[in-house]
Design brief:
The protein has helices spanning about 10-20, 35-50, 95-110, 140-145, 150, 160-170, 200-205, 240-265, 300-320, 340-350, 365-370, 395-415; strands spanning about 55-60, 65-70, 75-80, 120-125, 185-195, 205-215, 215-225, 230, 265-275, 285, 285-295, 325-330, 335, 355-360, 375-380. With about 425 residues, the protein is of the alpha/beta class. The longest helix is centred in the middle third of the chain and has 23 residues, at about 240-265. It is elongated. One manganese (II) ion binds next to loops.
Length: about 425
């Protein structure tokens, strides 16, 4: 039976509404990786896998997998996945839309007894969002062997060690510094995601087919000044870490604006996390910790940015009253999606009668990590006013259902290409 976009709306809507409830109640929608809410949501997802009759497992990287095995004996696997963790005060759809679409897709395949020449697996990739350990995409970096001992041994602000958390959730942190054995069996990794931008909405298009994902780098900046009495230390005697930080924040913003205009390619940089110590009104700030997030589709602009920022910090260290240190804590390279899968996604969207466009992603995704080693590609669906990583994030369920129809057509096309 054909996938009926309208009649799958209620299944998708129900699942999203059920998942939405697993949030820190004081700060919707917050489901940080390894939090209580995250564990609860994973139990819910396990139960959904069970209801669909899937084989449930957790791999070494802590990804939660529901597999529909092929009727033929094969190791080959097609993955459809995304993530159920959120940023603090995030949205209901980032990641979740893709996991629910994958459930809906598998339900249709099961209900219609469609034979596939490969195993089809839903993945909830562990911890896609940037976390308190300063790393994103834990599960997919783990799959491709891109987690090193330094990262795995990091402690978060509560003193919890990343590798212990991965092991507690069912992973095996010892296996994550080289690619997992499953990697060699993967035919394709597919993901549906909300666009998190405005292009599809403005152009009234149903589907975006992603061509590239920018590089992402993150840097910790520590500014050390001298705490002191706000009433007695005179203005020309201060080493105010927050004042020095504000100079860096403004510098980063202006530098990124200039480079984005010069390179004419995707280039953005943000300082969205800042800790002021001791953060008290009558004390001159003695220390500030900040995280810089940098995304670039151009290698030379990225290098120029890092060079100019380092020069700025050196100059401030020489001439100012505070000591500033910058450390690179995470990198993901610029990647292009598998060209054949992009073409197949385009054919699939056209076959579904859905309007579409090939486009570049602004956000980072698990598919970017996977594409470094295996054929991977993803599609976007529109989201309201491009808002994401905020509680106002909204996508129409109809659009998720349209995207699911494209995923299904894609799986069918891959089945035709891989028939034995
Ligand atoms: C992923 O959510 C990102 O930060 O791009
Ligand atoms: Mn996401
Ligand atoms: Mn996100």
């Amino acid at each position: 039976m054909e996938f009926d976009i309208e009649s799958n709306i209620s299944y998708i809507e129900n699942k999203i509404n059920e998942l939405e409830k697993f949030t820190d109640q004081k700060q919707p929608f917050t489901r940080l990786v390894f939090s209580k809410e995250f564990y609860e949501a994973r139990s819910w997802l396990k139960n959904e896998y069970d209801k669909l009759g899937l084989l449930v497992s957790t791999d070494e990287a802590g990804n939660l997998i529901g597999t529909l095995n092929s009727k033929i004996d094969t190791d080959k696997i097609v993955i459809v996945g995304s993530h159920i963790d959120t940023v603090p005060s995030g949205g209901k759809f980032d990641g979740i839309a893709g996991v629910v679409a994958a459930l809906c897709l598998i339900k249709h395949i099961k209900d219609n007894d469609i034979d596939l020449p490969f195993n089809l697996a839903v993945y909830d990739y562990l911890g896609e969002e940037l976390n308190d350990w300063g790393i994103s995409c834990i599960g997919t970096r783990g799959m491709i062997g891109a987690l090193n001992q330094e990262i795995l041994s990091r402690a978060n602000s509560s003193g919890n060690i990343l590798k212990h958390e991965i092991n507690k959730i069912g992973g095996n942190s010892k296996s994550l510094t080289k690619p997992l054995p499953t990697i060699k069996n993967i035919l394709a990794c597919l993901e549906l995601h909300i666009e998190q931008g405005k292009i599809l909405e403005q152009k009234k298009l149903d589907i975006g087919i992603v061509r590239s994902i920018p590089s992402i780098s993150r840097f910790n900046v520590e500014v050390n000044g001298q705490a002191g009495h706000s009433g007695t230390i005179l203005m020309d005697q201060r080493a105010d870490a927050l004042v020095a930080s504000s100079e860096i924040i403004t510098f980063v913003n202006r530098l990124a604006l200039r480079l984005s205009q010069e390179s004419n390619q995707h280039f953005v940089s943000t300082i969205g996390k800042i800790n002021v110590l001791p953060n008290a009104a009558a004390i001159i700030p003695g220390k500030v910790e900040m995280t810089i997030d940098l995304r670039s589709s151009s290698k030379s602009s990225r290098e120029q940015y890092v060079k100019e920022l380092q020069e700025k910090i050196e100059l401030m260290n020489k001439t100012g009253t505070c000591k500033i240190e910058m450390n690179n804590i995470a990198n993901a390279p610029y990647v292009e999606m598998d060209k054949e899968l992009v073409k197949l996604f385009k054919d699939s969207a056209n076959a579904c009668g859905l309007t579409n466009q090939i486009m570049d992603s602004g956000a980072g995704h698990d598919t970017a990590q996977l594409s470094r080693l295996v054929p991977a590609a993803m599609i976007f669906i529109p989201c309201k006013e491009g808002l994401s990583h905020c509680p106002e994030e909204h996508a129409e369920i109809l659009d998720i259902s349209k995207g699911t129809a494209v995923l299904l057509k894609m799986v069918e096309n891959l089945a035709m290409l891989n028939h034995t």
